[in-house]
Amino acid sequence: QQQVKQSPQSLIVQKGGISIINCAYENTAFDYFPWYQQFPGKGPALLIAIRPDVSEKKEGRFTISFNKSAKQFSLHIMDSQPGDSATYFCAASVDSGYALNFGKGTSLLVTP
Amino acid sequence: NAGVTQTPKFQVLKTGQSMTLQCAQDMNHNSMYWYRQDPGMGLRLIYYSASEGTTDKGEVPNGYNVSRLNKREFSLRLESAAPSQTSVYFCASSDGESYNEQFFGPGTRLTVL
Q1: Measured between alpha carbons, how far is A31 from A98 in angstroms, rounded to an integer?
Q2: What does each C-alpha distance from A4 to A93, A100, B18, B57, B104 come to in angstroms?
Q3: pLDDT category of residue A75 using cuts at 50, 70 and 90
Q4: Is pLDDT above 80 for B50?
Q5: Contact B100/A41, CB-based, under 8 Å?
Q6: Is A14 a residue whose pLDDT tops 90?
Q7: Contact, B89 vs B59, CB < 8 A?
C-alpha cells in the first residue's frame, strides 16, 4: 500500500517556468518530509526537507509548501532550468523511525 | 571521503544463480538500507540495519538476505535469482539520529535472465 501518493508522473516545463509536484499522505504520525532529486544513472540525493511545524521552507529556487490539515505537501521549482531535468521523489517518515516511504516519482523535463 | 559505494555497478545473472551486492560507507553512520527501484514504483525498502548487529525487514524482503558485516558494510544476497528481481538496487546510510537524512550510493543495475 503506497503511503505517499505523488503526482504528476511526468512534467514538462519551459525554461524560466515554475515546476510544481504534489504529494499526499495518510499517516498522521509522519513528521519528516524530504524531497530527493535523482539524475539518470545516479542515486537519489536529498534536495530539501520540511517538518510539519512550518508551512513553508525555501532554499534558493526550491520551496516546499506544507498543508498539515490536508495532509499534502508540494515542491515548487522557480525559474526552472534545463539542469533541473531529473526525477523527483517525495518521501515521508516518522522521526523516530527508520523507514522512508517514497512516492513513485515525477520525471521533470525542462525545455530550453 | 567516498560516501556510499556499491559493487558491482552492473550484473547479469541467469535464473537460479546467486550473488551478493556489496555496500560500504565511510561516514561513520549507524544505519544502512537496501532499496530497489523499478520503473513507476519509486524506491521500495528491502531491508535495513538500524545499527551494527541488527537487521530488519522492509517492504519487499522476500527472496533476499542481508548481512551487516561491521559498521561500514552492509551486503545484500540473492540466493536464487528470479526475473522479478531485475531492478536497480540502491544502498543508503544515515546517522540514525533525528530526521533520518539518507545518503545513497550510485546503484547496481541487475538483470536476471
Answers
A1: 12
A2: 10, 10, 33, 19, 20
A3: very high
A4: yes
A5: no
A6: yes
A7: no
